[in-house]
Design a protein that fits this description.
Length: 457
């Protein structure tokens, strides 16, 4: 007997009011569908088939290797989607067919295993849960312990709407029974669609249908609106943060820490509120991040300190400091003990060991050696209107405040530039480069200006 898994991912999600297919909306940096496929993979199906429809090409591009798809066209409801999938699977007699919605990212593998384990001796099994407010969900109808059917919310009578046990669109079927029941579906309902829930009633009439309860309704919550998306995202975030704290990561306020599932943290990392870490970002032991840091695809080294800053594709070395209010753009690399301070922007720049860019500067396409200091207001003028050019600053260099370094230019080891200089030529090691007009004074200027002003008046 084989286990075949069908994931329903054809819907648009009209309440999302977006051109993005619903199952591709991100939660913790991953599409809704990816979370579902992970849970399905944990029960080790022999084959997984995803039914796509709206935005089919985009959904197919998001599928992992080994997962194939079939297109539902036209979109005629969950029953029709299941029929299209079963036809694509081919012969399913004797197989267990698991059907899972693609918009339930909180679903756990344990629930799916329990569902599959409940099927022997029955024609179908379904996950159910009890909700204080079941509006919008199909109600589970029973005769004692026996499931007799599911009625959709919009088609339910007032008595049926009072039932708090709901179906959550997750099923295990005996393959032959499912295929037969799908052939007899009709769409004489409020939406004019083929309901997969109707299959339960048909199978209950000829065999046994088991309900498998899930204690926590949050686990089987689907996403049909941005409000529901925010709710499941918050729960995923709580799970991620709880796991990292259990692994030794300190968080002052975990409700205000936002981590993609792909982020990696070491025990001893410290995260303050309003930290957003995305993509392949890593944080080493002893690093302090936040408050108010956004970092994507960046590496924060041991004992580094980053606060009130934005990092994109940057590397921060051991003991380095970033911020407050710094912007590290792609290609930025800070060596151990380096500093990029207040209102500093860097791009494609290496800041050497112990070097500092403390205030109000732009370092673009630059290499800074070890132990150098970049004065406030310094800019590497790296773009000539057509091409980018590189600035190279040696070791132990002192760049005076408000220096314009017009690339390409090299500043030798132990060199100085005078404050307010525009440097257009290479500076030899140990030299002082100064470029200024000679200062002039006009004695008595203020008094003369005041007299002229009074005369005009």
């Amino acid at each position: 007997m084989s286990l075949r898994a069908i994931v329903l991912a054809a819907g648009r999600g009209t309440r999302m009011r977006s051109d993005l297919p619903k199952v591709l909306f991100p939660v913790a940096g991953r599409p809704l569908l990816a979370w579902v496929l992970d849970a399905v993979a944990e029960v080790a199906p022999d084959e997984t088939l995803v039914v796509v429809g709206y935005g089919a090409g985009r959904v197919q591009e998001a599928l992992p290797a080994g997962v194939r798809s079939v297109v539902e066209e036209p979109l005629l409801g969950t029953g029709y989607a299941a029929k299209v999938a079963v036809e694509a699977l081919g012969e399913v007699a004797g197989d267990t067919v698991l059907v899972v919605p693609g918009d339930t990212p909180l679903l756990q593998p344990e629930a799916l295993r329990a569902l599959v384990a409940a099927l022997p001796g029955a024609t179908a099994a379904l996950l159910t849960t009890r909700m204080p407010d079941p509006a919008g969900y199909g109600r589970v109808c029973r005769d004692g312990d026996r499931v007799t059917g599911i009625v959709e919310d919009r088609d339910a009578t007032p008595e049926q709407r009072a039932i708090d046990e709901v179906a959550v669109s997750t099923y295990a079927f005996e393959g032959a029974a499912l295929a037969e029941a799908l052939r007899g579906l009709a769409r004489d309902n409020d939406q004019g669609e083929y309901y997969l829930t109707d299959v339960i009633g048909r199978l209950a009439a000829v065999g046994r249908v088991r309900g498998v309860p899930v204690a926590d309704p949050a686990e089987v919550r689907g996403v049909n609106s941005h409000a529901q998306l925010a709710e499941v995202a918050a729960e995923v975030r709580r799970r991620i943060n709880a796991a990292w704290m259990a692994a030794g990561v300190w968080m002052l306020d975990p409700e205000r820490v936002y981590l993609d599932a792909s982020v990696s943290l070491e025990a001893g990392a410290r995260l303050y509120p309003e930290v957003h870490l995305e993509g392949s970002t890593t944080v080493a032991a002893g690093a302090e991040v936040g408050p108010q840091v956004f970092a994507t695809d960046s590496a924060l080294g041991p004992a580094s300190r980053v606060w009130y800053s934005v990092l994109r594709g940057a590397e921060v070395g051991e003991g380095a400091q970033v911020g407050p209010f710094a912007s590290l753009r792609p290609g930025t690399r800070l060596a151990a003990g380096a500093k990029v301070g207040t209102f500093v922007e860097t791009k494609n720049t290496v800041v050497g060991r112990g070097s500092k860019v403390p205030h109000l500067s732009y370092m673009g396409d630059a290499t800074i050696g070890e132990g150098s200091n970049i004065g406030a207001g310094t800019i590497t003028c790296n773009y000539d209107g057509a091409e980018k050019h590189r600035t190279v600053i040696g070791d132990r260099v002192f760049i005076g405040s408000d220096t314009m370094l017009v690339a390409p230019v090299r500043i030798g080891d132990d060199a100085y530039t005078g404050a307010g200089s525009t440097i257009t030529r290479d500076v030899p090691p140990g030299a002082l480069a100064v470029e200024r007009s000679q200062q002039a004074e006009v004695p008595g200027y203020a008094a003369k200006k005041a007299r002229k002003t009074r005369q005009k008046g």
